[in-house]
Amino acid sequence: MDLTELADLAHTRRVSLYRLRPSEDLTEMCSDRVIQDDHEFITLRVFVGGLPALLVAGLPEDDPAEWGAMVRSLTRVDIDFRTRTASAALIIRSGAEVYAVTFGQGWRLIRESRIDRDFGLQFAVRVLDPDEIRQITRWALSAQARVDRSSVPGGQGLWAFGLREHAELVRQLTGYVRAELPVELTHLRRMRNRAKFRLRLEFGDGVRMPLSSDGAGMAADLAEITRILRDNTIDPRLQPLTWVRRISSRDERRAALDRAVLDLLAGRGEGEVGIAYPARYYEGPAVDHFRGRINGTEINTPDLTLADLTRPLLDPLSTGRLDALR
Predict the structure, then answer these.
(1) What is the pLDDT of residues 121-179, one digit of tens each?
(2) What does the DSSP assignment read for 5-18?
(3) Which of 17, 97, 194, 304 is the most exposed place for a label (fewest CB within 10 A)?
(4) Spacing of C-alpha 63 from chain mean position
(5) 295 CB burial (10 A radius; 0-12, 13-18, 19+)
(6) CA atoms within 13 A on the CB side of 5
(7) Whole-angstrom distance, CA of residue 54 vs CA of residue 4
(8) Among 307, 303, 309, which Cα is nearest to 326's?
């Protein structure tokens, strides 16, 4: 019996799947909290369908129910209810990739800098039907950092949500996998004979999806996900979602990117710097004057140029050019 036949026999469960930045030692994927407190958490080296893996799990000490204080304030009755939240993460090496399957709040057990936050979107643009998007959460590129969530239970085209690809970052997507897509996941094999079945997936930093509860089936599912990321082409209608991405402040690449920006501002290195107007001015009313202050230098001009922004940053008295620009 091969892996495909075994996977067909397995049950599935909807879990959260993350792709991690690889490391020789899987324990390096664990958060500091796990490493520093070996009494509260367990770490076990295991095998999942023949793949090397690390199981991380914990049941923290119980805490007072967060609403208990309000009940006590209103009624003078202290009910003293306690809560405990069990969490687990299964970190699996599949070929050259490392994935983490999380249960409960298991994502808290993973080192944040190791999470590949492009994984969810890169998977989405390869499998989602652009005409069957059910929910979208986007973050506006503005000083207000506004987050909007829009839902259409029956699904609709992505661009019907009014997305502005250069002015908003997509943080989460929920939709249906394209019906004609050749995807060999355990859940699809079990359900494809049902009338009108469509696989619904939720995409963020990771993917919320049904995966096999059997070891061999899980190994087959992860191999199929790796194949999709490698071989499937990006849907042209979804490709604009990949043009602008947000880098977390804890991302290990942040320091290198900051140095690259400083080199560009100083006229060194390769690349160009341009002016990005706030989203609310895009195709909006005409602007006839710009007024502000950067690094102690006043800007008051009817025609804003790149030099107006970079000249104050080159002041030798400046202690932090990027901080001044922000």
Answers:
(1) 899 999 988 888 888 887 776 656 677 777 777 666 776 776 776 667 778 888 888 87
(2) HHHHHS-EEEEEEE
(3) 194
(4) 29
(5) middle
(6) 2
(7) 24
(8) 309
Q: Which two tokens stand for residue 135?
A: 């929910």
At residue 66, does pLDDT exceed 50? yes
Work out the number of other CB atoms within 10 angstroms of the CB of residue 46.
13
Q: How many CB atoms lie within 10 A of CB 100?
A: 25
Which residue type, as a one-letter code, is found at position 269? G
What average pLDDT does the structure give for the chain?
81
Rounded to 5 degrees, what angle do the CA atoms 226, 205, 174 make?
Answer: 90
What is the spatial order of strands in the sheet that 200-203 belongs to? 41-48, 51-58, 87-94, 97-103, 12-20, 207-212, 200-203, 168-177, 128-140, 147-156
216 burial type by CB count under 10 A (0-12 exposed, 13-18 middle, 19+ buried): buried
Cα–Cα distance for residue pair 141/221, rounded to 1 Å: 36
Instruction: Round to whole Å and give the CA distance between 326 and 320.
Output: 10
- The span from the CA of 213 to the CA of 293, in Å, is 58
Quick: pLDDT tens for 222-275: 999 999 999 998 888 888 888 777 777 777 777 888 888 777 777 777 777 766
User: How far, CA to CA in Å, does 282 sit from each of 241, 279, 285?
Assistant: 18, 5, 8
First-to-last C-alpha distance (Å) of the chain: 59
Query: What angle, rounded to 10 degrees, do the helices at 215-231 and 119-127 form?
Result: 80
Give yes or no for residue 319 having a pLDDT over 70. no
- Residue that the structure tokens 């003078």 belong to: 76
For residue 218, give the 3-state DSSP assignment.
helix
Residue 230 is encoded by which pair of tokens?
Answer: 């490698």
pLDDT digits 0-9 by tens, 282-315: 566 677 888 888 777 888 988 888 888 777 777 6
